[in-house]
Structures are given as C-alpha cells and as structure tokens.
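Researcher: I'm preparing a figure for a lab meeting and need a structural model of a single chain. I don't have an experimental structure, so a prediction will have to do for now. The sequence is pasted below. Please return the structure as tokens so I can convert it later.
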Amino acid sequence: MLKNKIVILMAILLVIAVIYIISNSRAEIIVTDQELNFSNIAVKHFPVTEKGKIAWWKENKQKLKHEFNIPVPARNGDWYISIWNYGEGFKAPPEGDVRIFNSETRDMMCFNKDINKCIEKELLMRIENNRKSEVNLIMDDTIITVK
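Model: Understood. Here is the structure written out token by token.
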C-alpha cells in the first residue's frame, strides 16, 4: 500500500517536473526564410499556450526586425510571418517535389531553397498585419489582434 502511494507520488512529481521544464524552455529560432513579403521561421521550444505565443511575439518582434529583417512589407504594406515547429530537425531531402503533398514528401518545406534544410510542416502560428496597422496573431482557429 505504501509502495503504491510512493510510486504515484513519484509519477506526479515527474509530470510536474516535465511540465515545468517545457514551460520554461526558451524558444529558439533555428532558421528563417524570406520570399517577397512572406517570412518563414522554424523554432524549437515554442510556447504552447496562446498567452505564451502572444508574449513571444511581443518580446521578439524587435529582434526579428533587427537580426533577421522580418517582416518585409510589400508595396501596399502587407506582410505575413509563419512560425513552424522545428520538430525533430532537418530531414533528409525528400524524393519528389516538396511543394506537392504525397507519401514521399510528407508535406515538407525547405528553407532558403536548400534541400538540406527541410522540415515537416507543423504550423504553430501565423502573424500578419492589416491595413489598420494592427497585427493579427492566428493560432489554430483563434485570431487575436494586437496593436
């Protein structure tokens, strides 16, 4: 009986420790890609919650501008940023065209047109501006507007 309680307590402590480590990991930008007014960013340890994603944007928008020149607006001022999960890292170049989804490409994208910098697509967040000078953060089915 006491052994079972100790095992359960240890399991709970392990879960709490894992959640703490994951929630306190800093997001790391691995690679960026720019084409016209569309930017792609692959990150490790991106926040899981909407609140964490909003905070990440607010904390990192100046860094993105100064270090990576992201975003680059089009003539009309529109720009778009897609944040992708780096996941298990760069994958071997797929057989076939990465722009076409099939069993060989596994819905992959390559950064900077480099076939050695391909990741499996897992969109974490999309950021775009609008003509009212507001920024929309799109996470799953949620759109949050920030100024």
